[in-house]
Amino acid sequence: MNFDYTEEQNALRDTLTRFIAKDYPFEARRALAKTAEGFSRDHWSQFAELGLLALPFPDACEGLNGNAVDNLVVMEAFGRGLVLEPYFATVILAGHLLRDFASDEQKRALLPKIGSGERMLALGHYEADARYELARIATTVTPQGSGFRLSGQKAVVLSGGCADQFLISARSAGGSSDAQGLSLFLVDRHTPGLKLSSYSTQDGGRAAELVLDQVEVGAQSLVGSLGEALPAIERALDYGIAALCAESVGIMGALNEATLEYLKTRKQFGQAIGRFQVLQHRLVDMFIATEQARSMALLAAVKADALDPAERRRTLSAAKAYVGQQARLVGQQAVQLHGGMGVVDELNVAHYFKRLTTINLTLGDIDHHLGVYSDSLLAA
Amino acid sequence: MDLEFSPQEQQFRAELRAFLVAKLPADISRKVKEGKRLAKDDFVRWQKILHAQGWGAPSWPERFGGTGWSAVEQHIFDEESAAAGAPLQLPFGLKMVAPVIMAFGDAAQQAQFLPRIVDGSDWWCQGYSEPGSGSDLASLKTRAERRGEHYVVNGQKTWTTLAQHADWIFCLVRTASEGRPQEGISFLLIDMKSPGVTVRPIIMNDGEHEINEVWFDEVNVPVGNRVGEENRGWTYAKFLLGHERTGIAGVGRSKAALKHLKEIARRETCRGRPLIEDLRFRDRIAQVELELMALEITNLRVLSSEKEKKAPGPEASILKIKGSEIQQTIAELQMSALGHYALPWQPEALDAHWDGESIGPDYAAPLTGHYFNYRKTTIYGGSNEIQKNIIAQMVLGL
Ligand SMILES: Cc1cc2nc3c(=O)[nH]c(=O)nc-3n(C[C@H](O)[C@H](O)[C@H](O)COP(=O)(O)OP(=O)(O)OC[C@H]3O[C@@H](n4cnc5c(N)ncnc54)[C@H](O)[C@@H]3O)c2cc1C
Question: Is ipTM > 0.90 here?
Answer without folding.
Answer: yes
